[in-house]
Write a structure and sequence with these properties.
- The complex is a heterodimer of chains A (about 300) and B (about 325).
- Chain A has 2 domains: about 55 residues, no CATH class; about 230 residues, MetI-like (MetI-like fold).
- Chain A contains 14 helices and no strands.
- In chain A, helix 9 runs antiparallel to helix 11, helix 11 packs antiparallel against helix 14 and helix 13 runs antiparallel to helix 14.
- Chain B starts with 11 loop residues before the first helix and ends in a 7-residue tail after the last helix.
- Chain B is flat, with a radius of gyration of 26 Å.
- Chain B has 2 domains: about 40 residues; about 290 residues, MetI-like (MetI-like fold, Orthogonal Bundle), CATH 1.10.3720.
- Classes of the chains: A mainly alpha (about 300), B mainly alpha (about 325).
- The interface between A and B is large, with 119 and 118 residues.
Chain lengths: ~300, ~325
């Protein structure tokens, strides 16, 4: 593989280079690329390609594999829990992006207004990562129906009847998403993007009479666009595959009202139905690819690009 | 400092607006710090006070009972999580350090090759090969990867037999060992992107000068590029560290023995015991609630859980503080397009 690669640009990489030097350069290149190639192949591309194959077999725990064609997919489509899991996943992803995505962008823009020293301290405090796992413990504690802080606020402060929070079938998704407003966003990327905007842009805009919002709208946001495009794409891909937070908070309950697709895949996997689980994963994969495509089309059609 | 006009900064209207922004930022910081405060405060409460209504702001009778249980397990706590919390902590450390030692050199060297050693079409192909999995949802690899850890290199529940015989192919089994977490993380596409973006910004002339002086590519990388790239290494190590430290789904799939389980899985175990979320029928719920009241009598309730949460949170937190200076310098990507 590495042998095909060309090493150019070194001043001596002309056709007059002796062949043993060329050979040594190839060896050096191989040293750089081959380990990464092996890992990326065996734990990246190989399982990804195998998944398609596996989803069309029964993959039994013992005995020989038999080809199932689209049987796994048909069975999943008839399972009422599958569309339900997809619906919940879409709601969860949509709500969480809607409620949380814009906040770190605006925080970063506002942070840039602070004097450099203040900004440094505030940046650390704002983007201080609270571990996701630890925060589930914390929110579980706050949402507890008997002695949680939220229950105390609802009953003693606001005078409401006792709330059922995470065991309310209608509201559980909202309660799950609200905490992530406080969580660590990709604010770092926005800050680096904002730092690279020349000050002269803002000065020129000011001479033209642009105000506060106008500057954000015509300078900061368009300049952040490539970074926002990337983080939004990762937010879409990530939130459609959400597992950790709802799994630790509710385990999919009550009555599957917060069971995302990945959680359902895990349920099937725990029953050792490898073929079905892979088929469901492939279905989620297809959904995410469609979402990515739509996103690309929409983002390209934007007028100011 | 650029959104507000340079001239006329002292106008009362603008001053008020500026202070409103400061107040908003401070409010956000305050809300961001509440979880840390409540977790620390609760971890020092006695078991019954941690479950008291109304909740107390500061522990009325501060005690170290929760923290002690992190290291000495009583018999009934042992029935819920079989290892002392410190054991899970050590397991998490082994997995994370192992992943870092493997992944950072491999990923950085391949990114360097793509950025400086390869040119033209081959560079583009390799770049796509390394970056392609980042844009594709990883969930689809979950089950094949899990089966790979059981029968490497066959992503199947049982290894196929050698044609013409009854004996199966020899396979390597890393499932339920630390390697099952460490090896699949050997290459990280996200970090590759960060490394590549940073190395691209190093001028070729520096490297060419070193080549003229006769340095081997590896020596150039180690002696010249590495010292220039401390910020990007800090950032990638931080991302890899927090990613592995927080990983939950993958260890849940490949780690079964609690003696090698990371902290994240211990969290799951304990949360189950205290919230009944994982119980499916009344019988187990009843059994667990008896267990839990036993535990409360011995001083372990949410105070112990918060100790667990702090053990999980503090390393990421400290790491962030250590690398904070590099965070803004190390990220030099301009999007994927």
């Amino acid at each position: 593989m590495a042998a095909q690669a060309e090493v150019l640009d070194a001043p001596s990489a002309q056709s007059s280079v002796p062949s043993e030097v060329k050979a040594r350069r190839r060896w050096q290149l191989a040293l750089f690329i081959v380990p990464a190639f092996l890992f990326q192949f065996f734990w990246g591309w190989y399982p990804m390609l195998v998944a398609l194959f596996l989803s069309m077999t029964d993959a039994p725990i013992r005995g020989a594999l038999t080809w199932q064609g689209l049987n796994n997919y048909n069975r999943l489509l008839l399972d009422p829990l599958v569309p339900m899991a997809f619906r919940i996943t879409l709601i969860y992803a949509g709500l969480s992006i809607l409620l949380t995505f814009a906040i770190p962008i605006f925080v970063s823009i506002l942070l840039m207004e602070m004097p450099p020293n203040v900004m440094r301290v505030m940046m650390i405090l704002w983007f201080l990562p609270l571990s996701g796992i630890a925060s589930t413990l914390f929110w579980q504690y706050l949402y507890n129906e008997q002695f949680g802080l939220f229950q105390w606020i609802a009953t003693a402060v606001l005078g409401l009847p006792p709330q059922s929070f995470l065991s309310s079938q209608n509201w559980v998704l909202l309660w799950l998403i609200l905490p992530s407003i406080l969580l660590y966003g990709p604010g770092l990327y926005y800050l680096t993007g904002l730092q690279s905007i020349p000050r002269s842009y803002y000065e020129a805009a000011e001479i033209e009479g642009a105000g506060f919002w106008r500057k954000i709208w015509t300078i900061s946001l368009p300049r952040l666009r490539p970074i926002i495009a990337m983080t939004l794409l990762f937010a879409i891909i990530g939130s459609l595959q959400e597992f950790t937070f709802p799994d630790l908070m509710t385990r999919g309950g009550p009555n599957g009202a917060s069971r995302t697709v990945v959680m359902y895949i895990m349920n099937i996997l725990n029953n050792a139905r490898y073929g079905d689980a892979t088929a469901l994963a492939v279905m989620l994969f297809a959904l995410i690819m469609v979402a990515t495509l739509i996103y690309r089309i929409v983002f390209k059609a934007d007028p100011d690009q | 400092m650029s959104l507000f006009p340079v001239v006329g900064r002292k106008q009362p209207r603008l001053r008020v607006a500026w202070w409103v922004i400061v107040a908003l930022l401070c409010l956000g910081i305050f809300m961001h710090l509440i979880p840390f405060f409540i977790m620390i405060s609760t971890s020092f409460k006695p078991a019954s006070e941690a479950m008291a209504m109304p909740p107390t702001l500061f522990p009325r009778e501060p005690t170290l009972a929760g923290w002690e249980l992190a290291f000495n397990m009583t018999a009934s706590a042992r029935s819920l999580i079989s290892q002392p919390l410190s054991q899970y902590f050590i397991n998490s450390v082994i997995m994370t350090v192992g992943t870092l030692l493997l992944s950072i050199p491999i990923t950085s060297m391949s990114a360097y090759a793509c950025s400086k050693l390869l040119k033209g079409r081959s560079a583009r192909y390799w770049f796509f090969f390394f970056i392609g999995t980042l844009m594709l949802p990883g969930i689809v690899t979950l089950i094949p990867s899990y089966l790979l850890t059981r029968n490497f290199p066959f992503p199947l529940p049982v290894a196929p037999t050698i044609p013409g015989t009854e004996t199966p192919f020899p396979t390597i089994r890393i499932w339920n060992t630390f390697w099952a977490v460490i090896l699949p993380a050997g290459f990280s596409a996200g970090n590759f992107l960060l490394f590549k973006g940073f190395f691209d910004s190093i001028p070729d002339s520096i490297i060419n000068a070193a080549r003229v002086d006769g340095g081997s590519e590896f020596n150039i990388f180690r002696r010249i590029v590495l010292p220039m790239s401390v910020p990007v290494f800090a950032v990638t190590i931080y991302f890899q560290f927090s990613g592995t430290w927080e990983s939950y789904l993958w260890p849940l799939v490949v780690i079964q023995d609690s003696s090698i389980a990371p902290l994240t899985l211990a969290v799951r175990r304990l949360v189950d015991a205290f919230t009944y979320a994982g119980t499916t029928n009344a019988q187990t719920a009843l059994g667990q609630s008896a267990n839990v009241s036993n535990l409360v009598n011995q001083g372990l309730s949410w105070n112990g859980l918060m100790v667990l949460g702090l053990l999980q949170a503090i390393p990421v937190f400290l790491f962030f503080i250590v690398v904070r200076e590099y965070l803004l310098k190390g990220v030099r990507i301009q999007g994927l397009k």
